[in-house]
Amino acid sequence: MAIWFQRIFLLLLVSCCASSDFLENPDFEAPPLNLSKNSNASSNAFVLLDQNSTLPGWTFQGTVQYVTSLELPDAGHAVQLGEDGKINQTFIAKGDDLNYILTFALIPGGQNCSTSAGLSVSGPDSNAVFAYRQNYSKVPWQSYTHNLGRLGNGEPINLVLESEAIDSDTNSTCWPIVDTLLIKTVGVTVVQDSGNLLTNGGFESGPGFLTNSTEGVLIDAVPSVIQSTLWQWSVIGTVRYIDSEHFHVPEGKAAIEILAGTAPSGIQTATRDTSEGSRYNLTFTLGDAKDACIGHFLVGVQAGSASQNFTLESNGTGSGEKFGLVFEADKAAAQISFTSYSVTRTQEDLLCGPVIDEVMVHSIGGTASVKPTWLLLLFALLYVAIL
Ligand SMILES: *[C@@H]1O[C@H](CO)[C@@H](O)[C@H](O)[C@H]1NC(C)=O
Ligand SMILES: *[C@@H]1O[C@H](CO)[C@@H](O)[C@H](O)[C@H]1NC(C)=O
Ligand SMILES: *[C@@H]1O[C@H](CO)[C@@H](O)[C@H](O)[C@H]1NC(C)=O
Ligand SMILES: *[C@@H]1O[C@H](CO)[C@@H](O)[C@H](O)[C@H]1NC(C)=O
Ligand SMILES: *[C@@H]1O[C@H](CO)[C@@H](O)[C@H](O)[C@H]1NC(C)=O
Ligand SMILES: *[C@@H]1O[C@H](CO)[C@@H](O)[C@H](O)[C@H]1NC(C)=O
Ligand SMILES: *[C@@H]1O[C@H](CO)[C@@H](O)[C@H](O)[C@H]1NC(C)=O
Ligand SMILES: *[C@@H]1O[C@H](CO)[C@@H](O)[C@H](O)[C@H]1NC(C)=O
Ligand SMILES: *[C@@H]1O[C@H](CO)[C@@H](O)[C@H](O)[C@H]1NC(C)=O
Ligand SMILES: *[C@@H]1O[C@H](CO)[C@@H](O)[C@H](O)[C@H]1NC(C)=O
Ligand SMILES: *[C@@H]1O[C@H](CO)[C@@H](O)[C@H](O)[C@H]1NC(C)=O
Ligand SMILES: [Ca+2]
Known about the structure:
- It comes from Thlaspi arvense.
- The protein is mainly beta.
- The protein folds into two domains: 19-187, Jelly Rolls; 195-208 and 232-363, Jelly Rolls (Sandwich).
- Helices cover 8% and strands 42% of the residues.
């Protein structure tokens, strides 16, 4: 019993505070050494790295160029991965069983290209390919995220980024530029309102935000919660992870804005410990991100075998409304999903959509809810008592 409490308290510590930088030269501001004599990094926007050059912190192969531009997130330097271009860096996992979540900036390497090469990002046993998306951000770069995997203390993590060409005509291909990599660790979150049967229903556990980013982080479709960068949620289509510093967030520091393009987009999770046949109340906040997204939001909500559509008229100024849906659990892990059916765009033609936050599932007539702060305090007191 005592061990159980101690364990929970330690897990609480891990999930609340672990977040730091692991990479050397993550923003490429440390310039390459031994550039060839006829290249001039201060005056050229693109400098090809040859076999005599070294890039601090990184190993590179193939066509890799060092980029200097004011259009970058840090108004400094980045790297472009050209034909067969590849960079990698190894760092060591610190702490037990943490997920290593990468956020990075992707910049399109040119205009009017017939094809754009993708960017492949890999961890020890994970891989995903990213592509710059037209009409998803006001600035000429976007933040993306990838879960490098769950690793134990001391394990090496080799982060590999490489270009992925789709077309054989490499002359008219635009090659990806990457900058400002950030690694955040996310631990096993057991912080919960004892009455709420959902984990991370407030979306506080997700990818890190880049310092100079005003546009949130785009999360691409990820069918498995294990590979997701949004703790306990899978993603359909594309969603934007938004921060309270730059958007209207109903509760806490982060929320999800669903961006539906040609196909519906959304998020999905499952409840813990619901009992088949029992009735539950799903409550959530539906709002807008204060990003000038004007329109009619239509969000389909599914809980167990119940489904219902909810609407919100958004004037794009940062609203939020609470809704509820009563359902009967069909199994112990009842599916909960939010899908946006409406396509909304700002006047600048940027995709935008409904914000979801504060998702909770409570048993109807069940146990009284205990506030998480009380729970934390209780565990802290017990922990101290045990010692
Ligand atoms: C590099 O460019 C800077 C500024 O344009 C210039 O002052 C410098 O002489 C150049 N160096 C070489 C080696 O060309
Ligand atoms: C690398 O350095 C060696 C020795 O200085 C030189 O002979 C060679 O041409 C350089 N290679 C390139 C690609 O600049
Ligand atoms: C790179 O530069 C350093 C110091 O200037 C020198 O010691 C080293 O030999 C150079 N390496 C190559 C491959 O030219
Ligand atoms: C943010 O941008 C400013 C200039 O726009 C730059 O000087 C600064 O280094 C950037 N910070 C980071 C962490 O990228
Ligand atoms: C890059 O990966 C190779 C193995 O593929 C490894 O030998 C090398 O040390 C890595 N580079 C860095 C900087 O970690
Ligand atoms: C791309 O195309 C537009 C319109 O066709 C043109 O104005 C612009 O100069 C082109 N940009 C480049 C880099 O070729
Ligand atoms: C992106 O927006 C521009 C206008 O800003 C529009 O011409 C273009 O068709 C849009 N592209 C997509 C893929 O929606
Ligand atoms: C690519 O460009 C080079 C030089 O500009 C040219 O020699 C080559 O034929 C072009 N390749 C294709 C497939 O267009
Ligand atoms: C579900 O929760 C909402 C919000 O707390 C509340 O207004 C509603 O009465 C609840 N429904 C039931 C059946 O308990
Ligand atoms: C919700 O709306 C979508 C799109 O109009 C529709 O396909 C779906 O059947 C509706 N669901 C319910 C439960 O009304
Ligand atoms: C936008 O909506 C909010 C809440 O629905 C309302 O208070 C506000 O007056 C509206 N603003 C405009 C400009 O319509
Ligand atoms: Ca939140």
